[in-house]
Every structure is written in C-alpha cells, then in structure tokens.
Amino acid sequence: MPDYLNAVMAMLGEAQNRYADPSAWDRLHAELGVQLPSDYRVLVDAYAPIELNGHLSLSHPATERWNLGQWIRDTARAWSEVPWDGLDADEDPRLLFELKELSFGTREGLWPIASTDRGETIFLSAADTSWLLVEDGEGGWSQHRMSFAEWLYRYLVGENMAGPHSSAFYPGPVQLLRLPMTAAERPEPCRGPDRGM
Question: Does domain 4-191 have CATH number 2.120.10?
C-alpha cells in the first residue's frame, strides 16, 4: 500500500510546522469529544492555515485566525440546520450510505474537516474514521473509504474526489497560498516541488 502521507508531503514541499502545538490538538479533541486522524493532524500541522491549488482550505487549531475548532463548530452547526426530510434518494446521505441517523458534530456523526471555495465540504465519520463523505456543494454526496492523506493525494493528482466531474487538477507544482494571520498581512503564495505532471 502506498504511503500517501509522505506522497502528499512530497508534493507540498518541506513541512513548515509554523503553528504545530500538541496542546492545541489536545484541547480541540477534548472540546469536540472526537479524535481527528493522525495523518490529518500531521498535514494540518505541517502546512495550515493554507489554501491548496486555489480551492481546498485547511485551518489550524492553534491559530486565532483561520481557527480549525471554530470553523468545525460553525460548519457543523450550519449543517445541523439543514432540513433533511423530503430529499430525493440520490441526495439523501442517510439513504446513499445507510446511515442510521444524520448528525453533525456529534460523537457518532459527521465532522467537517476541510472545504473548498467551490462549495465542497469534506466530512470525517466519527463512527468510523476510515472513511470520508464529501458533499459537492450542490446536494451530491460521495463516499471514500480511505484516509485523509489518500483522499488529498488523489484530489491533488486530479481524481474526482467530490463526485463525478469534480476534478480540480492543475499540472505542475501544487500551488500553496499561506493565509494571512493579521489584517496587515497579505496571502503568501508559494509552490511545491516539481511533480513531473
């Protein structure tokens, strides 16, 4: 099995670890009541807060601005307010993925862990952290039985990771945009190493 964590890090370049703080993760896990996967934590610590290839955003639990915990709480709250009754069978994640219940931000529910500016939201299943659900921003859902690192690798190489026709492939090095931490700062663009693509 490929080492997707190292493969993603090879595409993104040297880890910055600007805000790596184990106590921030401990506080977040205690607050959420759920443990986020280690590969996700490694990638967030290494690069976040960041935007990848102009679309996918990752926040960090140790920063005030672009704070992961706040984003998760706000996003879970917003998804909890969605009316789920009366949806077509192809738009209802309960029917699509045989979920006993649909909840967000609960011990057995879905936890938002990343999003794109195209409206896609990536969710981790607290009940089974070996799979992710992705909502495409238009009511379509896809399920991925894989780690976050594998999902991100496949996303960056141009696979349809948010449903049919969702590829966001850009040839060449991955474009990284370090997000500003104060109102006076500007986003800091950089590139990963050459990928031969």
Answer: no
Both tokens of 149, joined, read 């690192």
Structure tokens at 178: 């370090």
pLDDT above 80 (res 196): no
Q: How far is CA 178 from the centre of its chain?
A: 16
Q: Where are the domains of the chain?
A: 4-191
> pLDDT of 95-147, one tens digit each?
888 887 789 999 888 999 999 999 999 999 888 877 899 999 998 899 999 99
pTM of the prediction? 0.94
Q: How far is CA 87 from CA 64, 96, 133, in A?
A: 37, 11, 17
The per-residue pLDDT for 1 is 63
Q: How would residue 184 be classed by pLDDT, with cut points 50, 70 and 90?
A: confident
Report, in angstroms and rounded to the nearest whole number, the Rg of the chain calculated over CA atoms.
16
Per the CB < 8 A criterion, the answer to whether 72 and 79 are in contact is no
The answer for residues whose C-beta is within 8 angstroms of residue 183's C-beta and 6 or more apart is: none
Q: Which two tokens stand for residue 37?
A: 């996967």
Place of tokens 């057995």: 108
Burial 79-107 (b: 16+ CB within 10 A, else e): beeeeeeeeeeeebbeebeebeebebbbe
